[in-house]
Amino acid sequence: MSLHEMEDYQEVIRKLLGTLTPEQILEAVPAEKLMRNLTPEQRLAGLDPEQRLAGLDPEQRLAGLDPEQALLALPDEALRGLSEAYLRTLSEPTRARIRQRLER
Predict the structure, then answer these.
(1) Which of the residues 66, 86, 94, 102 could staple to 90 if both were Cys, CB 3.0 to 4.6 A apart?
(2) Mean pLDDT (the chain, rounded)
(3) Contacts of 17 by beta carbon, 8 Å cutoff, 6+ apart
(4) Contact criterion met (CB below 8 Å) for 76 and 101
(5) Per-residue model confidence (pLDDT) at position 7
């Protein structure tokens, strides 16, 4: 009978791993291999937004946003420069968020 076939093998391994520090685990299994088994949400858990976005180009930070959402990513100074005519082309929820930000 091999070690893997022992009845309590998984339990023993789980207990052993529970006694190891993260550093000791990473010595045995590369971080890349561990990360492949995690969902994106698990990989990013505990990180501040700034840490999540570190290293991304501005275009990458806004990827997947519709134009009005991207517009809301602009600084207040840029939003103040938008014409009233342009603002009227935006949806009411977007206009309301811009008004709210600029009233501060």
Answers:
(1) 94
(2) 91
(3) 25
(4) yes
(5) 77
Place of tokens 């890349």: 32
Specify whether the CB–CB gap between 73 and 98 falls below 8 A.
no
Kindly state the average pLDDT of the residues 65-84: 95
Contact indicator for 70, 62 with CB cutoff of 8 Å: yes
pTM score, whole prediction? 0.56
Q: How confident is the model at residue 8 (pLDDT cuts 50, 70, 90)?
A: confident
| Residue boundaries of the structural domains of the chain | 57-104
Cα 59 to Cα 70: distance, rounded to the nearest angstrom: 10
CB atoms within 10 A of CB 101: 14
Q: CB-based contacts of 79: which residues, under 8 Å, 6+ apart?
A: 71, 98, 101, 102
Return the structure tokens found at 1: 């009978």
